[in-house]
Amino acid sequence: MKNMFKKSLVLAISAGIAGLSFQAQATNGYFAHGYGIKAKGMAGAGVALSQDSLAAATNPAGMVRVGSRWDAGADIFIPDRTATTAWGSAGNATSTTYDGNGDGFGESWFLIPEFGYNRMIDKNMSFGVSVFGNGGMNTSYSSPIFSTGATGAPASNTNTGVDLMQLFISPTISIKLDDKNSLGMAVNLVYQRFEATGMTDFGVANNGYDSSVGVGLRVGWMGELTDTVTAGFTYQPKTNMEQLDKYNTLFAEQGDFDIPATYALGFAWKATPKMTVAFDAMRIDYGGVKSISNPNNFSVDGSATSAGFGWEDMDIYKLGVNYQVSKDLVVRAGWNHGKQPIPAGETLFNVVAPATVEDHLTLGFTMNMKGGAELSGFYMHALDNDVNGVPGGSATGFPSGPTTPGSFAPGAANIGMSQNSFGLAYGKEF
């Protein structure tokens, strides 16, 4: 039964993505900064402001408010990843800086597609489906980084890197309770894929890609508090995923890599007839997934206490503005802020997952065309942010040197990232 379900879900996913990539959307930790091109132009704010048929990814209660429509789009995501590590004998450590960007499509830049469809069953109920990448992480270093040799130099003959992607297909029911309130529920059919290379110090040979599937849920409410203020709330419990068998020692609980729980509260204020201001406060419970939150103690045995990335829970704030310039043009802007989840003492393992960005600035637009069609676009820049490792007490962020040649201590790295992303979507009402 398990294999039959997995095969059916993989077939559905294959049809949905048509061979396109959903990788490397690391922004709020490893989650995307927003879902849907319109929301992305407002820094991801959308819990109380649904604008297209990707709304189920943020708050499924909003689908009944967008009417019958479909949307298809894609964005180009360009992260810039760096890491500096220190190696050598005690008191004589030297540092090396590595470029984690790889080369070309799938390493230095990524195509992120999205699709949504929503149909009104009657004036108070809709059924739809949203297809989107939840997030992901990719690093593609041009050399090995970790050490297994007696000299302290990286001894692996394989370049270090990871590739994580997560794809959601979310059938959604949304209903209006009355003129002011709506509820929604999305069933999340999830597929994830992972590969790690050049990580023999963590007990992992180059095992190639492994994948797993899972089924989760997102629920939401949206209600009009006054004539100008709308509120929303959404909750997604932790999604239990199948184990990644090829990485049953790298990840805790025999290769378990579940999707963390999230919840968010949002408000949308129609400040003027032409301008709407939206604000979301969101939490991602990275601490609820052991393979993400366990400290990196270099015990890679697949047990419940096996080494993790050491990530902490993340609080995120999204502020966006939507302004109607004319009947045919809407412009948007936004700011997304969240303290990055990597403690300074956990940076070494996070060389492969340097999700350090904290601030995103966004712009967006929608042009109305004939026949109920729209063309929307956005641009996002995530400001560069670094996290410097602290073991050994060095002011530069490196240890004074490993205690024995060839060894290293947790946190003996400086990591950083910045990002750029832009995209377009075509939508049509019917």
Distance between the termini: 39 Å
* Series of secondary-structure elements, N-terminal to C-terminal: HHHEEEEEEEEHEEHEEEEE
Count of helices?
5
Major pleated sheet: 14 strands, antiparallel, barrel
Summarize the structure in words.
With 430 residues, the chain is mainly beta. The chain has one domain: Porin (Beta Barrel). Helices cover 7% and strands 45% of the residues. It has 5 helices and 15 strands. It has helices at 2-17, 37-40, 63-66, 252-255, 290-293; strands spanning 69-87, 94-99, 110-122, 125-140, 161-176, 181-197, 210-224, 229-236, 262-270, 275-284, 314-326, 329-338, 359-368, 373-388, 413-429.
Kindly list the characteristics that best describe this protein:
Porin, mainly beta, 430 residues
Helix and strand topology:
Layout: H1 2-17, H2 37-40, H3 63-66, E1 69-87, E2 94-99, E3 110-122, E4 125-140, E5 161-176, E6 181-197, E7 210-224, E8 229-236, H4 252-255, E9 262-270, E10 275-284, H5 290-293, E11 314-326, E12 329-338, E13 359-368, E14 373-388, E15 413-429
Antiparallel strand pairs: 1-2, 1-3, 1-15, 3-4, 4-5, 5-6, 6-7, 7-8, 8-9, 9-10, 10-11, 11-12, 12-13, 13-14, 14-15
